[in-house]
Design goal:
single chain, alpha+beta, three-stranded antiparallel beta sheet, three-stranded mixed beta sheet, 5 helices
Length: 152
């Protein structure tokens, strides 16, 4: 472990506690060289999960990639970082609890869309427009009409 500020490897742990509903350990650390503090999270390493993409190619599941898509959809929306983190934790619980080593990308996309639909309608439409590859304004309008019907 290196200090993110000065790069020193002389780091000490100040505090450790469970985080993310016992799924991770939060460690507060301090650099002995520059004195700055930072937080790290340790998660249990599980079997590698592969995502089956639309073209049948496979790639490792990447939490950061899912997070990036959600954060982009939630840009300037009243969605907190903790809500996004919880959504990702719930997604990973769902994926790992299946016990399968490979999961279709559609399962991930649909879970994120459903979670965003419940959280924020605008973020949902933003994500859906990219995920479902809306080709024109009519497709976009159809999705908004469906959303409005379910909200009533």
């Amino acid at each position: 472990m290196k200090c993110p500020y000065c790069g020193s490897e002389d780091i000490r742990v100040i505090d450790s506690r469970p985080a993310d509903e016992q799924n991770a350990i939060r460690r507060r650390r301090e650099c002995e060289k520059c004195g700055k503090r930072f937080t790290t999270y340790e998660r249990l390493e599980t079997f590698p999960l592969m995502v089956i993409k639309k073209d049948e190619s496979r790639e490792p599941y990447d939490r950061e990639k899912a997070e990036k898509g959600i954060v982009l959809a939630c840009h300037k929306r009243p969605v907190s970082a903790s809500q996004i983190s919880k959504m990702l934790d719930d997604l990973e619980s769902l994926l790992y609890n299946t016990g399968k080593r490979e999961v279709p990308a559609s399962v991930i996309g649909e879970f994120i869309m459903e979670s965003l639909r419940e959280l924020d309608a605008v973020a949902y439409v933003r994500f859906a427009s990219v995920y479902r590859e809306f080709k024109d304004v009519d497709t976009f309008a159809e999705e908004i009409t469906k959303l409005l019907k379910t909200k009533k």
